[in-house]
Amino acid sequence: MESQQVTRAGLWWRLLESCVVIGGVLLLGGGALRAVAIFSVFEPFTTELRAEVSAAERLQSYRIAVEGTPYVWAGGVLFFLGVMGSALLRWRHLRVYGWLFMGLTLAVLACAAELWLTFAYDIPLVRLFATGTPAVEQVERYVLERVRHGGVVGTLAALAEWTILLFFVWRPLERHSCGQSTS
Question: Which of 19, 76, 136, 176 qualifies as a cystine partner to 55, CB 3.0-4.6 A?
């Protein structure tokens, strides 16, 4: 009976780890797609729009970014549920799993940042495109506001998410005692 519970806990652990990895790929990959689409309309390292890019091309870039947003949201939910579930599953052993404690701490900070960015900037932008083809000026107002006011927060959240993902893969700060398994 005890070995069956150990196997069940190991199965949950692998499932939650898979959620973190798959969710992280969707979250960070979708975020990179959105960043490339959005920043292709700006002069490098500025928030000035490129003069040679027409309004129709800019609108298409914004549309590509907005269409990637649901994948980012789905990946974020999967990622953060996996991190929180992993922490709950190993809650009593966080001293042994130092990487999990650090990942949980970063996840709390990154989740707060992602929620703020989602509700303050992403949802209004998605709603704008959901109602039809918006005016470029209206979309650019939201995009510029997000880039100027939320850019640093989004970058720090992405760095925290990359670190969490690497913690789950590499598992630093994990203490091993003699005969103890890591799975």
Answer: 136
